[in-house]
Specification:
single chain, 118 residues, Jelly Rolls, 6-stranded antiparallel beta sheet, 4-stranded antiparallel beta sheet, globular
Length: 118
């Protein structure tokens, strides 16, 4: 059972992305099924491995919100740290730089990404 299942979601066919954007560890990513209407473009269930990181990348075409589901992490938005745990939400405007550090060396960080096109 993946950690996401413990957060009320279950992966069916996640894609494993190693060292995402130059980070460390891996992220399991799965698009959620369903109907999205404008301005929403994507909803992704994600799980960052224990101690893993997602490297710096820029929100080029979509704004985003990240919703923490389980675990603890630090999200850096334009180099400003945001400590997050379950139920916390961080918004990313178009052009923002994001990186993620899983704060736990033993537990995954589970989160949902929702993207919208302005």
């Amino acid at each position: 059972m993946s950690g996401a299942e413990g957060a009320g979601f279950s992966f069916t066919r996640p894609e494993r992305r190693d060292q995402l954007f130059g980070g460390s560890g891996f992220v399991l990513v799965e698009p959620l099924s369903g109907t999205l209407t404008k301005p929403f473009t994507t909803a992704l269930l994600c799980e960052l491995s224990p101690g893993g990181t997602v490297g710096v990348h820029v929100q080029q075409t979509d704004t985003e919100i990240i919703i923490a589901l389980a675990g603890e992490a630090v999200l850096y938005v334009d180099d400003s740290p945001h400590a997050v745990g379950p139920g916390r939400v961080v918004g990313l405007p178009l052009g923002a730089r994001l990186s993620i550090d899983n704060a736990s060396p033993t537990e995954p960080f589970r989160y949902l990404i929702v993207k919208a096109r302005p």
